[in-house]
Prior knowledge:
mainly beta, six-stranded mixed beta sheet, 26 strands, disordered N terminus
Amino acid sequence: MKKYLLVLAAAALFCTACEDNTSNATLTLALGGGPNPSSVNAVEGETRVGIGDKVNGYYQLYWTPGDKVLCNGEISHDAIISNKRAAVAGFNFANTPSAPYSIIFPAVEGVASKGANCYPVQFLAEQKYTEGTFDRDAAVMYRYTSKRSSTLKHLTGTIRMPISGEVTISNIVITSPSKPISGIFDLNCETGELTAHEGSVSNQTEIVFENGLQLKADKATPIYFTVPIGIYGKLDVVINTTDNQVMNFFITCDESKPIRAGIVRQLGDIQFRNTSK
């Protein structure tokens, strides 16, 4: 069976004084059909899509075993990751995809497409805290291309919140007063336009901690979360602790400080303060 190789790159994360950009560290895909993946030198056991080390000012993004992509409405088999670079993976399909390719990561299963080049994407309502990075499924990316070599586009920006204190966080709730930030959206891969999937979206996303997160008084712990790109005016943040303390504040996301694709926006150090008194 003839194999087709499609090489894609996803932007990584770059740093400035106030923002870290998710710029060009690459995620590479080989798309093929049949029982065996297209040829990449593959090995199991890398670390999933998330923030890796900085290289030339950019945080790297990596694949992990179990990753799948959606291509032209068909979900791939699990990623087979290059043993030379964790940004490179092969994806196999029951049927070889044909160009042009509408590619989405991570793949959303069980939701019907809305027509040609229009497929579902999911922004998480619950983002699991992961030390030093964001939730494994929170980096939503896509591409519409006829080329075998291309770059995935980010649909989210990332916010890095460094928090210190003498409390244990139970959860953090982020609310957009203006429009939805989680749930199922329909993405037109050709135009990049997002449309909320009726009855399946919310104006909130929550960062959850499996066993709570004990903060340090003398050193801020960075917490990452993603938000769909756009202008929100502000995002309201509520930090809840295991002993029922609450801290409220907001993050400005207006025209001057929008959530930008592939950008890690770094907030200044936040000292936990109980605002519920």
